[in-house]
Amino acid sequence: MKIKRNQLCGNLNKDNIGETVKLNGWINTRRVLGGITFVDLRDRYGLVQVRFDNDLPENILTIVKQLNMEDVIAVEGEVQHRPEGSTNKNMLTGEIEVVVKEFEMLNKSKPTPFEIKKRETGSENLRLKYRYLDLRTEKLQKNILIRHKALQATREFLSNDKFMEIETPFFIKSTPEGARDFVVPSRVNLGKFYALPQSPQTFKQLLMISGFDKYFQIVKCFRDEDLRADRQPEFTQIDMEMSFIDENDIQKVSENMLKTIFSKTIGKEIVTPFPKITYEEAMEKYGSDAPDTRFEMIIENVEDFAKLTNFKVFHSALENDGVIRALKVKNGAEFSRKNIDELTELAKTYGAKGLAFVKYKENEFQSGISKFIDEESGKVLIEKLKLIDNDLVLFMADKWNVSLTVLGSVRKHLGKKMGLIDNSEISALWVTNFPLFEYNEEENRYQSMHHPFTSPNEEDWQYLENNPKKVNSRAYDIVINGQEIGGGSIRIHSQEKQKRIFSALNISEEEAKQKFGFLLNAFEYGAPPHGGIAFGFDRLVAILAGEPTIREVIAFPKTTTAQSLMIGSPDIIDEKQLKELGLKIEIEK
RNA sequence: GGGGUUGUAGUUCAACUGGUUAGAGCACCGGCCUGUCACGCCGGAAGUUGCGAGUUCGAGUCUCGUCAAUCCCGCCA
């Protein structure tokens, strides 16, 4: 490489006019006009137009005429003001150009599978295979930069607040509760396996016991579960833990940290403190524990109305411990039968048996269940929902969580479809007072809603053994624009209490000792009161970048079948490796 | 584990109700062009219609299976 850059393409401007500069970069586009050739040269910092005139030596001209997109070149030349009428206002460096005196071809490029300057010329499938090329695109360059800034802002903010970043091990051991673990066989300990951490949960609690009263780590976590747009098998968390604190301290630090991140990465000022609602209220009003509060449409209890109707579905639901809830859709009376059928189909995917509806038009109830509504019940419904002309009402009659989850999903769907969401808005809130346990129908037992180290509310300990449903916890989630982006809790810090939780979860004393003995022992040596939170960093960056999936903010993401199309992982390993590890593959069909 | 959508040239898409030699833009190759910036103009090459069966006189199109991508449900302490 003879011509080594002393300037950056995107940084040049009028002040450089007259200077002789050396540039290195990729060819974004080239325009050969016969006697003159223009090339838009690209580096990380932007584009600049480079001009090749006809008076260059023949050997250079021959190569220049054959330049292709994505060739890597070096040029030396003078920065000049473009002639009158030839400036480009759409280009940051559009007032100038570099007139080439010396040229060096650094590396040719084959035609790329898709055009870097026009990302949509490749499907996501294709771009994932050539991710290193996708990362050249303006969009991903921008997203990865936002991610970098968010990382720096986080570290700076927390370090300034006395938090220490401490690394915890990746090779740990498998735990009974929670997601499936990724496991790693140990060659030195034949027949034994490490597990990769789903989170550094127990380690950060141990660090509190060690006296590092403010810990954080930006850390990879691993979960072997099925993927989604917002879920990857390996993902990044901002993991935090503090001692001698309560919920308010953690929430305050979190709010200030998020405020700093939003401000420093995308220049957006968000308002703190964030509103708080309880889990129950979130479910009752929005049908979700991660409500999108950027639009209204509140779910209402319409049992008084339901009792007055002679609609059998309502009555049998109420007799079977069910609830009746309704969602009012403004102007929804205009929906066609097909529109409503689609909503019903959506409802069914969330476990609804059906979705009752009625339209309120010209002061009367029409279609759907209108024939079951008489004057008296109609009046109650109009009053409860403050119905006006052209409203549509959707009803769910089922178990509490089914009714609300279904209406919540319909609400979210309609919010998007009807354009009720202002995408420039950032709406953050805390959801608090979660139940400690949820019932797992399949396994016929209670399991932790968050994790087994979460402290119940002080006044709820009394119900732990006899009425676990009634126990709420000191857990809190942070929700932004309807996405859970963080969650944490005040932890248990007494051995005796932790044992009671394990026992309530049906984890035997023996198993608790085997899996978590180290933590239970540690609790005996002066464990301070502590708590923490973890943020889904990928989701946070996706919100910062305005992206719908976290794949767009991860440099090398995996597909929804947990594969890398680029490197072809996972892959088989050879016999020798298997033998060394004492493993044999048997796949049942 | 289940459901929806998709798979056609390097690539993005098209191809009617199952019917001639599967078309177009961009990219690529060749030629022309001194102020372009999605440069333009002329010409060219480019296909195992994801894969495998089946139905049919005939399948890109219909059926079944399979693989892959994606969205969702379950799952995700």
What is the tally of beta strands? 22
Number of discrete helical segments: 16
Number of structural domains: 3
Largest sheet: 8 strands, mixed
CATH class type of the largest domain: Alpha Beta
Portion in beta strands: 15-25%
The name CATH uses for the topology of the largest domain is BirA Bifunctional Protein, domain 2
Regarding quaternary structure, how should these chains be classified? single chain
| N-to-C CA distance | 56 Å
Can you walk through the features of this model?
By secondary structure, the chain is an alpha+beta fold. It folds into 3 domains: 99 residues, OB fold (Dihydrolipoamide Acetyltransferase, E2P), CATH 2.40.50; 264 residues, Bira Bifunctional Protein, Domain 2 (BirA Bifunctional Protein, domain 2), CATH 3.30.930.10; 127 residues, Gyrase A, domain 2, CATH 3.30.1360.30. It has 16 helices and 22 strands. The strands form 5 sheets. An 8-stranded mixed sheet has the order 6-9-10-22-21-20-17-11, sandwiched between helices. A hairpin with a 2-residue loop joins strand 14 and strand 15. Helix 4 packs across helix 15 and helix 7 packs across helix 12. The protein is globular. The two termini are 56 Å apart. The mean pLDDT is 94. The structure holds one RNA strand of 77 nucleotides.
